[in-house]
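User: Some background: our group keeps a shared notebook of sequences we're curious about, and every so often someone picks one and asks for a predicted structure to add to the entry. Today it's my turn. The entry only has the sequence so far, pasted here. Could you supply the structure so I can complete it?
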Amino acid sequence: MAIKPFSGITPTLADTAFVDPSAILYGDITLYDDASIWPLVAARGDVNQITIGARSNVQDGSVLHVTRRSDSNPDGYPLIIGEDVTVGHKAMLHGCIIRNRVLVGMGAIVLDGAVIEDDVILGAGSLVPPGKTLQSGYLYVGSPAKQARPLNDKELAFLAVSAANYVKLKNEYLGQA
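Assistant: Of course. Here's the predicted structure to add to the notebook entry:
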């Protein structure tokens, strides 16, 4: 796998984390317990940090990046992914915060300073513009993303199930099943 240092900082992976050999991770990146990174993911923690919480997964072809600190934005925009998050194939997350139990649909784009609160589904192909907050408990779709409707109990339960399914799959890949 391509785990590369940048400016003397090397990604840190929990013992139970999984990174596919075709993925590439640079710099200040932390993966917590049971997190998984799937084929062809590119993650650059070169000018700020990336954190991926426990049991979260980032699926094939996704791009993860951050925004540099500056005089006008002293903290820049790190990328923070909470726990039990499923990031669908080919998503692009840039300097945003994704809280817990979130499903980011395939091909979705989430930009600088955006915040997705707990228990949200972001539909495939949706665009979350810079600085927008998606409130907990809703489905969001479109470009720009708009609140479509409240999530039902089955959808809310699915968020943790999706993350658990990827923990099981990464264990199979690691030969621990």
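Suggested note for the entry: The first strand starts at residue 2 and ends at 4. The domain at 2-173 is CATH 2.160.10.10 (UDP N-Acetylglucosamine Acyltransferase; domain 1).
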